[in-house]
């Protein structure tokens, strides 16, 4: 995690205003309301001071990918910050985040489901990660297995499935991400239909589609994203060496 405290609030404000303008424009193109999309500021490797500055500018949702880094930041920041765990989560670390973050975006295997259910005294809100890109380097259940995996998760009352998450392959042209985002939205719609038939009491929980990052979040919004995960467009490039 970067230890730098040399934060230019004016630069952060300018970036946030630009991102916000892009969100509004994408919502208008899609015929959607701005309040249908939640901006998650991906703060991994960025310092506490930058998170505090964005929070003061009105950002409430922040995403972290590493348990230890999240723990260090959460210990210092006010409770008004809503944390999202967006990275791959090892089953043996589930106990640290279960019930402690607003939403876990990366549930993709039965061992993690079991660990999360066992480790929390309160309801754990989760997204099911789907491997829409077909890349082995990315986590997620196979699209064909999504409904069966959902059935396994909702069999555990400790977990509440809020929706799905996916990542498109990296590309310079954001339009190349469109078919992947469209596919995730279609999978989500299919999951809702499955839930309405097989677990009607839980179907109403399915509301979120987490997709889109700094380079392609506008396309993601146009294709139905409700949660977008934006890092470098807000914070600037990550400094892994600091």
**Domain unit count:** 1
Strand numbers in spatial order across the main sheet: 7-6-5-4-3-2-1-8
Number of helices: 10
Overall SS class: alpha/beta
- Stretches with pLDDT under 50, minimum 5 residues: none
CATH class: Alpha Beta
| Shape category | globular
Number of strands: 8
Radius of gyration: 17 Å
Q: Report the CATH topology name.
A: TIM Barrel
Instruction: Give a short account of the largest sheet.
Output: 8 strands, parallel
Order of helices and strands: HEHEHEHEHEHEHHEHEH
Distance between the termini: 7 Å
Reported CATH architecture: Alpha-Beta Barrel
Q: Residue-averaged pLDDT, rounded?
A: 94
**Share of β-strand residues:** 15-25%
Oligomer: single chain
Give helix % range.
Answer: 40-55%
Query: CATH homologous superfamily, by name?
Result: Alanine racemase
Detailed description of the structure:
This protein has 242 residues and is an alpha/beta fold. Helices cover 40% and strands 16% of the residues. It is built from ten helices and eight strands. It has an eight-stranded parallel beta sheet with strand order 7-6-5-4-3-2-1-8. Helix 6 packs across helix 7 (178-198).
